[in-house]
From TrEMBL, chains A, B:
Keywords: Glycosyltransferase, Queuosine biosynthesis, Transferase, tRNA processing. It holds the Pfam family TGT. The active site is at 103 (proton acceptor), 282 (nucleophile). This is Queuine tRNA-ribosyltransferase. GO terms for cellular component: cytosol. Its EC number is 2.4.2.29. Pathway: tRNA modification; tRNA-queuosine biosynthesis. It comes from Flavisolibacter ginsengisoli DSM 18119. InterPro entries: ArchSynthase1/Queuine_TRR, TGT, TGT-like_sf, tRNA_ribo_trans-like. The gene is tgt. HAMAP family: Q_tRNA_Tgt.
Length: 387, 387
């Protein structure tokens, strides 16, 4: 095991403001050099330097996320490191002055690229765009995330398939842990870029096996990072298993650090996992499902393609503060989808992101007010309603 | 010829504020029930109830057009008359409280639909969407535009092909004139919808033949409408011919009514035609070319796909007031196009529309200041510059 240089790492501050009496839900506040993040938080996914179909202006005025996410794999391929470095990092490049978190590219390497080969050194893979060959190692990924300039960088991990056998999951977890050491060593041996503090979060793996998850939580916790993430969930396992593993991890990870559940999930997943002690979420669901005509609203889920909305001139969602939710009617948005108008994709994406942010902000209010659990139980059937 | 019921038509007011000493350029003001239109004006095309890729919020805050255009043919097919009538018209449906002008559908029937058959009654055509058969007559088109609720409705005309022979152009013009009588008769026999005044503008045709254009101008002028339009230009004829016909029409149409040149054109076309006495323009060029990576800027034309912009982090256009033009860099917009991100289409459309509106507003300022012609001569080489 490598020496622990963590004392050198400039700290991201996490203030735990309140823990719910009747669940493990927490309300907190993360301080970064690009501003505050009130937790629990949902982070819109800005895959390739853009939250799909949403302008930075709309993101701020309609959605108001405290932090967004960028995908290392995508940004590495396009626009590439030379352009991002010349721009002074992703904040400058996309003109976004709030915090940015980058994943490690691991998930995309395993899900998108062809012909990947994993060994101790790292992963050799082919670009899904042009088939060109690239090597990601823990050190290289740290360099890439440094250049992107993320406020929160994620460690490079292997993401085992959802249905992995125990032996594969064990070996994979151990590889992820050895890569984690190399990530921290390289991270601690390199400088923050662009004058703001960069943080490195390690990722718990271990598939659906309790002993592996527990061991991984211990290993990850020993890094004493400023925050910890749980990976490899919502990758095909049944929902109860996801909740069970999430609970186990929350109980094993330190209380005084933010906990980030990667790539989850539906609105009800998010409330359930907040109840288990998760502070940070990201998911492509609001934007991707939005582009496929599914609207999340405070009254339930709408398939806006459906003929029943053809002459429903009521606002998309009068339960949200977002201007879009009041300004555009269901009938109008349905028409835009039917006519193939790009504005439909934008309105649906904005609505869904505004809804996700509303949901976590409401959760936070109720945690602080002390009635989170009863509010959650009321909300979940509404969230699952098909309108 | 039908009796002239125009005395019954509620008037749209046109105040001619200034005519240039050294050209036929004019600055004016049109008053409608949905607000003022300062002329010369460019009208963004909101084809199917949406200016493509641009939200109503962006349209107001970034582009600030005094009026937009809707396409009767497209709106008739989708969302259809039942939905538009139930919505209380297009203003309500798309939530747009400024003036709307609708074309008559004639141009689209001739350019998009299959199997069209023209006779005295009207045009039988097949939808380009599902092949269904429809009949447009002057009376039906008036009813449709009434239901859409346009502030300015256009008469139903035949648009002859660009290279029409004299005989075809003559017969077509005469048919258009007979249809014009029927349009006015039906328009005057029907009521304004939704509580605001609707106006009907006739359209001059006659292809590239001076005597036909002159005769058509006289016929159109005799209608004593609140405004007059010139159709059938920029359909493939050489630029000098377009200018020549435009000048002839401007000289033949009344001075005290706004003159609308339909479907024109490039930025330099617009300045040249303002100099000839045109007050109103529309064109899909800013949005369509924008979606194809062409940016119009105050410094010239940019193909944002080009590698030369890869690391140009300067704003798209620092000569415009639009926030987008300053907020997003050339390198970022190029990246969005390369990565296929929808935001690229939005930024390009907003930039180009903001530029077109800037151009006509600058023209107006210079007409009022008395130096329009020298400004135009300076601008045209800049507008044609390929950066």
């Amino acid at each position: 095991m490598q020496p622990n240089f963590l004392d050198l790492m400039p700290a991201l501050a996490f203030d735990l403001l309140k823990t719910d009496d009747r669940s493990a839900a927490r309300a907190g506040k993360i301080t970064t050099d690009h501003g505050l993040i009130e937790t629990p938080i949902f982070m819109p996914v800005g895959t390739i330097g853009s939250v799909k179909a949403v302008s930075q202006q709309q993101l701020k005025s309609e959605v108001d996320p405290h932090i967004i996410l960028g995908n290392t794999y995508h940004l590495y391929l396009r626009p590439g490191m030379q352009t991002l470095e010349a721009a002074g990092g992703l904040h400058n490049f996309m003109n976004w002055d709030r915090p940015i978190l980058t994943d490690s590219g691991g998930f995309q390497v395993f899900s998108l690229s062809g012909n990947r080969k994993i060994n101790e050194e790292g992963v050799m893979f082919q670009s899904h765009i042009d088939g060109s060959r690239h090597l990601f190692t823990p050190e290289k990924v740290m360099d890439i995330e440094r250049i992107i300039g993320a406020d929160i960088m994620m460690a490079f991990d292997e993401c085992p398939p959802a249905n992995s056998e125990y032996k594969y999951a064990l070996d994979s977890m151990n590889l992820t842990h050895r890569w984690l050491d190399r990530c921290f060593t390289h991270f601690n041996g390199t400088q923050d870029r662009y004058g703001h503090t960069q943080n490195l979060f390690p990722i718990v793996q271990g598939a659906v096996f309790h002993d592996l998850r527990k061991a991984s939580c211990e290993y990850v916790s020993s890094k004493n990072a400023t925050g910890n993430a749980i990976g490899g969930l919502s990758v095909g396992e049944p929902e109860p298993v996801m909740y069970e593993i999430c609970q186990l991890c929350c109980e094993s990870l330190p209380t005084e650090k933010p906990r980030y559940l990667m790539g989850v999930g539906t609105p009800w997943n998010i409330l359930e996992c907040i109840a288990l002690g998760i502070d940070m979420f990201d998911c492509v669901m609001p934007t991707r499902n939005g582009r496929n005509a599914m609207l999340f609203t405070t009254k339930g889920v709408i398939n806006i393609d459906n003929k029943k909305w053809e002459q429903d001139f009521s606002p998309i969602d009068d339960g949200l503060d977002s201007e879009f939710s009041h300004y555009y009617s269901k009938a109008y948005v349905r028409h835009l989808f039917k006519a193939g108008e790009l504005l439909g994709l934008t309105i649906a994406s904005v609505q869904n992101l505004a809804f996700y942010l509303w949901l976590v902000k409401e959760a936070r209010k109720h945690i602080l007010a002390g009635d989170f659990l009863s509010w959650k139980e009321e909300m979940i059937p509404i969230l699952k309603t098909r309108l």
